[in-house]
Write a structure and sequence with these properties.
The chain has 150 residues and is mainly β. The protein has two domains: 30 residues; 93 residues, Sandwich (Immunoglobulin-like). 13% of the residues lie in helices and 33% in strands. A hairpin with a 2-residue loop joins strand 1 and strand 2. The radius of gyration is 27 Å and the shape is elongated. The relative contact order is 0.16. Keywords: Stress response. Belongs to the small heat shock protein (HSP20) family. This is Hsp20 family protein.
Length: 150
């Protein structure tokens, strides 16, 4: 079942990314190939592992644009092969992952038939909380001298 977000678009301003994300979640719930895992390594590091048995690095493209990570696979069929049984899927695919703000792709490599994608959250210094010095408070080690008016 697909939900139509159009009525909400008419009455909301500035929530376009939220509705795009909801639509993306709904769309990707229908996709099942290729299978993947998403793992949290620690607070700021993540790893996506995608099962790509039979694919070579030349047949896979990984691109990151804005907050979307796109993985595409195009399998080139070799002529002259006759299969008695074909259980390993080698169909073309396109899978997209929506990344949160400040998540960057650090690298990708093949390991035991899995494409492993390393991600890390890197918040810019300008966005991190910082302590601000408060001026104007009298230091506690200063004594005040009494003065008399003439």
């Amino acid at each position: 079942m697909r939900y139509d977000w159009t009525p909400l678009w008419r009455s909301s301003i500035g929530f376009d990314r939220l509705f795009d994300a909801l639509d993306e979640v709904q769309r990707t719930a229908e996709e099942t190939y290729p299978p993947y895992n998403i793992e949290r390594i620690d607070e700021n590091r993540f790893q996506i592992s995608v099962a790509l048995a039979g694919f070579t690095p030349d047949e896979v493209a990984l691109t990151s644009e804005q907050n979307v990570l796109t993985l595409e696979g195009k399998k080139s069929e070799k002529e002259g092969k006759t299969f008695l049984h074909r259980g390993i899927s080698t169909r073309n695919f396109k899978r997209q992952f929506t990344l949160a703000d400040y998540i960057e792709v650090k690298g990708a490599h093949f390991e035991n038939g899995l494409l492993v994608i390393d991600l890390q959250r890197e918040i810019p210094e300008a966005m991190k909380p910082r302590r601000i010095e408060i001026n104007g408070a009298a230091p506690s080690n200063v004594t005040q001298i009494e003065s008399r008016a003439a």
